[in-house]
UniProtKB/TrEMBL annotation:
Its EC number is 4.3.1.19. NCBIfam families: PRK07334.1 (NF005600). It is an enzyme of class 4 (lyase). One of its GO terms (molecular function) is threonine deaminase activity. This is Threonine ammonia-lyase. It comes from the Bacteria. The keyword Chloroplast does not apply. SUPFAM superfamilies: Tryptophan synthase beta subunit-like PLP-dependent enzymes. Keywords: Lyase, Pyridoxal phosphate. Its cofactor is pyridoxal 5'-phosphate. Residues 326-405 form the ACT domain. Pfam families: ACT, PALP.
Length: 408
């Protein structure tokens, strides 16, 4: 049974009392930066489970028969779908088992278990985890809840589109992240029924460009991405035909663009977004000409990002902006030289965060030493001013590396 608009409307009514109506906020800063007439953010990261996935999971759970509820359900997921299933099964008293691949971050495993699910980690890949889940479903008589290729799941995700149309009518464009395609297909069914339907653009990772509409003849991308929520090798058999029919285009962004989008959302909007959730912004920032003078909505699909990954991304963002830099300074290995060099940095407004004094393990003359200094600055021009001051004082100095040179 293929989903349709009536199923989306029925799903929205069924789940209305149990999921958040997430806000849509306007971002004048983004409109100014990109040349769009207006930019709006649909904040699905504010769902209790941290992503839109709770919608489709609940709609599928509500369709279980009494016998299926008693036996329990099983799902496969590396994060968001797992938490959506666990949340609503825990609330409704339905036994839930979730198979998560071995690479799943510990925080996501812990959150899923905290909602009451029995978490089993198995499989090196999502495909292996799904295979294991199907084996357990057959052995234990459990109902398998697919993360995206299920009509009721698609219909539940489509409730995001119905909300967005009510909250911000007459949009010109909506940018939606696509992995397996459940959110994209559901929202397309809802939004295409509008009197003046918006142009729909999907966004994927360059590492998983399964629906991107061009010949991908460049060098192969690594089969990994910061946007693990859309790291799906094959779109759904139910979702792909809907996307092919209703989307204007599907484009890809790389991890650097996604990183920069995560940093922008955090710094400028105080919004925490995971990689997949930031992908629509990454596309807008990468292709602003496509959305010039148009009213654009971005679906921030989730905010379940690992704290360590978020910290690393923010630090790398500071480096790219010139607000953190690692300087290498050559000094004489004599009393007072270290103090003098660091005092010069302070006199020019630099804040030293780390100092490594190298004598033995660097290829330097025996009566010399090298300082590796991590310094906080206002921008890249400020860093250059500090380097100039050091050189004029007789200290050979240079900036080292890039974001990758900083410790995590």
């Amino acid at each position: 049974m293929n989903p349709d608009l009536r199923q989306v409307q029925a799903a929205a009514a069924a789940i209305a009392d149990h999921v958040a109506v997430t806000p849509v906020i306007q971002s004048p800063q983004l409109a100014l930066r990109t040349g769009a007439a207006q930019v709006f953010l649909k904040l699905e990261n504010l769902q209790h489970s941290g992503s839109f996935k709770a919608r489709g999971a609940l709609n599928r759970i509500l369709a279980l028969s009494p016998a299926e509820r008693k036996a329990g359900v099983i799902a496969m997921s590396a994060g968001n779908h797992a938490q959506g299933v666990a949340l609503h099964c825990g609330r409704l008293g339905i036994p839930a088992t979730v198979v998560m691949p071995l690479f799943t971050p510990v925080t996501k495993v812990q959150r899923t278990a905290a909602f009451g699910a029995n978490v089993i980690q198995a499989g090196e890949t999502l495909a292996e985890a799904e295979q294991h889940a199907h084996v357990l479903a057959a052995e234990r008589g459990l109902t398998f809840i697919h993360p995206y290729d299920d009509s009721r799941v698609i219909a539940g995700q489509g409730s995001v589109g119905l909300e967005l149309a009510r909250q911000q009518p007459d949009l010109d464009d909506v940018i939606i992240p696509i992995g397996g395609g459940g959110l994209a297909a559901g929202m397309a069914l809802a939004l295409s029924a509008e009197p003046s339907p918006p142009r729909l653009t999907g966004v994927q990772s360059v590492s998983f460009p399964t629906l991107v509409r061009y010949d991908h003849d460049g060098p192969p991308s690594p089969a990994q991405t910061l946007a693990e929520g859309i790291a799906v090798k094959h779109p759904g058999s139910r979702t792909k035909p809907i996307i092919d029919r209703l989307f204007d285009d599907v484009l890809a962004v790389d991890d650097l663009a996604i990183e920069q989008a995560i940093v922008w959302l955090m710094e400028e909007q105080k919004i925490v977004a995971e990689g997949a959730g930031a992908a629509p912004l990454a596309l807008l920032l990468s292709r602003p000409e496509r959305f010039h003078d148009r009213r654009v909505a971005l679906v921030i699909s989730g905010g379940n990002i690992d704290n360590r990954v978020m910290a690393s991304i923010l630090m790398r963002g500071l480096v790219r902006a010139g607000r953190l830099a690692r300087l290498r300074i050559e000094i004489s290995d004599a009393p007072g030289m270290l103090a003098h060099a660091t005092a010069l940095i302070a006199e020019h407004g630099g804040n030293i965060l780390e100092v490594h004094h190298q004598r033995l393990f660097q290829d330097v003359p025996v009566k010399s030493a090298e300082l590796d200094v991590v310094v906080e600055a206002t921008d890249s021009g400020h860093v250059e001013a500090m380097l100039t001051a050091l050189r004029q004082a007789g200290y050979p100095a240079r900036k080292l590396g890039s974001a990758a040179s900083l410790p995590e």
